[in-house]
Amino acid sequence: MAWERELEVLEEAIHRVNAEYDAFLYGSASKPPVESRKRVEQMIRRLSGVTFDAAADRYKFSTLQGRYTALVERWERLQGEKESGRRPGLYGHFVPGASGSPAGATRPSAPPASPNAAPSASVNVSEDRARVDRGVYEAYVAARRARGESMDAYTFEAFAQGLARERARLKEKLGTEDVLFEVAEREGKVKLIAKRREGGGGSGGKK
Q1: pLDDT band at 128 (very low <50, low <70, confident <90, very high)
Q2: 11 found inside a domain
Q3: Structural domain harbouring 180
Q4: Contacts of 70 (CB under 8 A, 6+ apart)
Q5: Among 36, 33, 12, 13, which Cα is nearest to 24's?
Q6: DSSP for the chain?
């Protein structure tokens, strides 16, 4: 039996429950998605008893299991912070592989640097910023969807361009573009709030 479709359903379910947890942790959802989580765990238990003939299927199931385990640890940690009255960690909603790469995948190790290679610090900063922006995007979209808003046409590329413009504006105003963006509700709307990483003053976000 080909299990490819079963694994696709599991992957979609994991992505969905992760978005629901984001809506609970950072949006307007009042309760964690307990039932959705139970359904995912039932699927994993059932597939754990399956003998996969194809190596690709075995590998995909293993990576999905690993990703789900990491997500559960994150959900419980951030839910504990939320229940204790603290704001869940800003970057807690981001897990490598959650969107832009296959679920559960890890970043490949960087190849050994050539003796003549130029410093790669700027490249690393750019990659790190893209990953952080992706995480903020997912939390922002989840929070707006939790309010019943359609976000199907809203792309990460457009979101990232908006953040780039905001950083440029803040650089002129604050003298730095090293800021943190967090998702918050203000006046009944989901917005992004920008704050200086050093803990200085912040500026209002955008819709």
Answers
A1: low
A2: yes
A3: 121-203
A4: 95
A5: 33
A6: ---HHHHHHHHHHHHHHHHHHHHHHHSS--S--HHHHHHHHHHHHHHHT----SHHHHHHHHHHHHHHHHHHHHHHHHHHHHHTTPPPPTTTT--TTSSSS-TT--PPPPPPPPTTPPP-HHHHHHHHHHHHHHHHHHHHHHHHHHTT---TT--HHHHHHHHHHHHHHHHHHHS---EEEEEEEETTEEEEEEEETTS--EE----
Distance CA 175, CA 68 (A): 41
Asked if 166 and 182 touch (Cβ cutoff 8 Å), the reply is no
Average pLDDT of 67-88? 85
pLDDT (tens digit per residue) in 3-54:
888 999 999 999 999 999 988 888 778 899 999 999 999 999 999 988 888 8
Name the band, by pLDDT with cuts 50, 70 and 90, for residue 82.
confident
* Orientation of helix 4-26 relative to helix 55-83, angle to 10°: 10
Q: Is residue 24 part of a domain?
A: yes
pLDDT for res 45: 93
Do 79 and 141 belong to one domain? no
State the total domains in the chain: 2
pTM of the model: 0.47
Residue with tokens 């992004």: 192
